[in-house]
Amino acid sequence: MYRIGFDAKRAFKNFSGLGNYSRSLISALSQFYTYNHYYLYTPEYKENPLLDFAQRPNIKIVTPKGLNNTFSSLWRRSNIMNDIKRDNLDLFHGLSGEIPLGSSAVPTVVTIHDAIFMRYPSYYKRLDRWMYQRKFEDACKRADKIIAISKQTADDCIKYFNADASKIEIVYQGCDPQFYDKPTIEDIARVKQKYNLPDRFILSVGTIEERKNLENIVKALPYVPADTKLVAIGRATIYTAKVIATIKLLGLEDRVKFIHNADFRDFPAIYAQSKILLYTSLFEGFGIPVLEGLNAGIPVITSDVSSMPEAGGDAAMYVNPMNPKDIADKIDTLLSSPTLCATMVEKGYKHAQDFREDKVADRVFDIYQSVIEKK
Question: I want to staple 308 with a disulfide (CB 3.0 to 4.6 A). Which of 63, 187, 229, 302 is the partner?
Fold first, then answer.
């Protein structure tokens, strides 16, 4: 039996990429390795249906005592060590690229998701880039093991953060288990009405920011049959205005639907109604929506760059994300070939098995054991 702690801020406060990773891993470990005790360190905790795993008897939520929000970041960075020592942890896992100062007192693992802020600095404020680089370099230097979520990220850890290659372990991410099961007919009907979904649509998922490349999907639409709509799910940013301007320029107002506040629990029923998932990001540490689409049983078109081929394997179709005509041609190929779609769906189910939460949990726990025994 081990006492394992996590920097769980993202699990409780972020309901997209990093938060999904944190919740999925904590939930899987506490489900498949029930004999351990898990300590979730977070500046604040509010009950949420997505956090039902936090009620398990082998999980304890730890919040700072006597600190207001102004000092919560200080607690995560250094004062948290008082709680970690009190809880007598066997290992601490920084789930989002950082570990606390003074953590040499306990074995540590850190997960590095990507180095996008180094590859695309124009997308980030200068102060944020500086802060992220310092935290990631420090974590890579001090952690006993580094979990990279793809080979792409492993290479970037070495290139940008001077990480010791011998400390890096590649552990691919899984997606939320809610995508494993087909939604019911009732759920599909409810979600279709709730979001007023069109009868025939292709789907894009991800924060509507420049790196996610939604504008080039929009530019592909004129080459796609007119009865096919585009549904774009994701938080709006200033880039959204640029996408909307392109939509208006091309006269596609009646063919694009934005959903900025979709309930994550409704995602499987939304996926199930779409003809194709499009994830043509310019760069990702991994690309969880690719796995979500494969598990949901729909054909996936994704980019032929960075880590996306690692996520999609031989089950996805790949495009040049900067070429709208290539995107359109691949969409047309799938829309016109039910046989090809069925083959891709079958391959997708098979490929997705390698990323199931039990396998991810096994791989991560093996790393925990090796670090603890070595220390």
Answer: 302
| For the chain, domain boundaries | 3-174+356-374, 177-354
User: What is this structure's pTM?
Assistant: 0.90
CATH class, domain 3-174+356-374, is: alpha beta
Instruction: Residue 155: name the closest of 349, 310, 278 by CA.
Output: 310
* Residue 16 in tokens: 């997209």
| Angle, vertex CA 172, rays to CA 166 and CA 178, nearest 5 | 155
- Those residues with Cβ within 8 angstroms of residue 208's Cβ, 6 or more apart along the chain or in another chain: 214, 232, 234, 235, 236, 237, 239, 240, 243, 258, 260
pLDDT digits (tens, 9 = 90+) for 100-134: 987 778 999 999 999 999 999 988 999 999 999 99
| H helix or E strand, kind and range, residue 256 | strand 256-259
* Under 8 Å between Cβ of 220 and 327: yes
Report d(CA 193, CA 214) in Å as an integer. 25
Contacts for 321 with CB less than 8 Å, ≥ 6 apart:
213, 216, 280, 281, 282, 303, 304, 305, 327
